[in-house]
Amino acid sequence: MNTNRDEGVIKFKLTLKRAPAPEMNQVIALEKWRALFFKLALIGEYPIDKIGYGNLSSRIGKKTFIITGSQTGHLAHLQAHHYSKVIECDLKKGSVTAEGLIPPSSESLTHYGMYEANPNINYVFHVHHQKLWEMMCNGPFDYISDDVPYGTQAMAEAASQLMGTKTSGIFVMKGHEDGIISYGATPEEAGKIILELYRKLAVRQ
Ligand SMILES: [Zn+2]
User: Fold this and answer.
1) Hey, is 101 helix, strand or coil?
2) Where is the Class II aldolase/adducin N-terminal domain (predicted)?
């Protein structure tokens, strides 16, 4: 089957510095939301191609953040060592430097682009859901057009234009099948906006 799915493959140049995993208290808010999203299959693994999807991050500094590790989508619960600390990115060069025991999510560059573009946001949640994605593609929602590939400088620029100075919001990536991103100043802001839409969808069905 030919799809737009572009999941799981690390496209950037990664330097992973072996370092202790983030502390549990640094990931607890992410883990809370992640466990719920996993239950709702907003984070998970595509059954046929066995590719994990969905990734969450939280800012820890001006341009640094903690993000779920690559290929962890199939796990219901993560330990601290499944998270990685991204300490430097270069969108133009497509490079990422991280610290930890696991490579950061293959979608780290987009998270970085959003943090860099908007100092008001501290949490970025990326989930996948086919029906939610279809609803958003066909509805009055912020979107990034289908010619913008995920994880690129163009995506970061498009996202920063959409966000402006907003402190929370959600948008659909038309060129990244099933892909939705929410953001907020707090984990609740970023998480609830996804949940509200998910519930709306459930009511419609
Ligand atoms: Zn994705």
Assistant:
1) coil
2) 35-205
